[in-house]
Amino acid sequence: MLLQIIDSINGIRQVLKTFKKSNFQIGFVPTMGALHDGHLSLIREARKENDVVAVSIFVNPLQFGENEDFHHYPRPFENDRLLLSKEKVDILFYPGKEEIYPETFSTSISIKKLENKLCGKSRPGHFSGVATIVLKLFNIVKPDVVYFGQKDFQQTVIIKKMVSDLNVDTKIKVLPIVRDKDGLALSSRNAYLNNDERKEALCLFKALTKAKIMIDSGVTISGEIVNEMKCTIKEYKLARVDYISIVDKNTLEDVEYAKSGDVIALAVKIRNTRLIDNLIIPSLLFILYTITLLLKDSI
Ligand code: AMP
């Protein structure tokens, strides 16, 4: 099937209605465009697992603060369209701002306790904006399965909580972070980085790697790990830490001792570009398995 580009809510509802009548399973990937291999990993999984794949591209003004990059956010529509065609996506939902937020729009979703932690501290209102657009998209598309990336870890926790609290009848799948060869997590915002900044952006991955080495060697005190991560980042002159936290994967509360399943999350500004990354601490079994493999190789 050829990619259909639909910009109206009624239009996409009509098209999806026929698929739903035939009991087709609908997979959905919400994005803000400027697609890269991270987005494509979600789309490919959706393609594998569903009869119909819908992707949305909407740069959501509600999730940007006043001094943030809404106006500069990359919008390479033609390239995105070609990528989606290549991946055999069926439907691209590409609405304008007025279609989603008419002048009379006045509702917002709040996920108390979760929305003001981590990134929420320096981006007030961001997660309320995210949850509002995601719930609207869920109601428009009514997908069976929706795909998100672990790259935006806090977002996945908040969406899962909203889906559970509001009984949204959709399955959420979270897929691993896709990285560049050197470890930098792919992000549409990486396009803002010049050569020097791109080199310095590696500090997030370097700090996470440092944390992983410490945990593998038996360190569990969160404060010690976070301090070492801060030291790692201090070596990069363009980098300024927004936060580094080790948190429970459901409550996002700081943990005193890091254990498997907890999440190490950080946000760092490289000059004007704010980047995020995270690591879910692997289970002990996985660590032992890796060590066994390494030992086997060295014998
Ligand atoms: P965005 O366009 O930034 O709103 O992202 C759309 C979706 O792609 C979100 O679920 C993100 O978590 C996911 N995503 C962004 N970057 C990556 C990445 N490097 N690896 C995996 N998923 C990603």
Question: What characteristics describe this protein?
Answer:
299 residues, alpha/beta, Rossmann fold, Pantoate--beta-alanine Ligase, Chain: A,domain 2, 2 domains, 6-stranded parallel β-sheet, 9 strands
Low-confidence stretches: none
The portion of residues forming beta strands comes to 15-25%
How confident overall, as mean pLDDT? 96
> What's the Cα radius of gyration?
20 Å
Strand order of the largest sheet: 1-4-3-2-5-6
As for the number of domains, it is 2
> What is the H level of CATH, i.e. the homologous superfamily of the largest domain?
HUPs
Query: Main sheet, how many strands, which sense, barrel?
Result: 6 strands, parallel
How many strands appear in the DSSP assignment?
9
Amino-to-carboxy terminus distance:
53 Å
The global form is globular
CATH architecture of the largest domain: 3-Layer(aba) Sandwich
Structural class: alpha/beta
The helix content, as a percent range, equals 40-55%
Q: H/E series, N to C?
A: EHEHEHEHHHEHEHHHEEEH
Which distinct ligands sit in these coordinates? Answer: adenosine monophosphate
DSSP helical segment count: 11
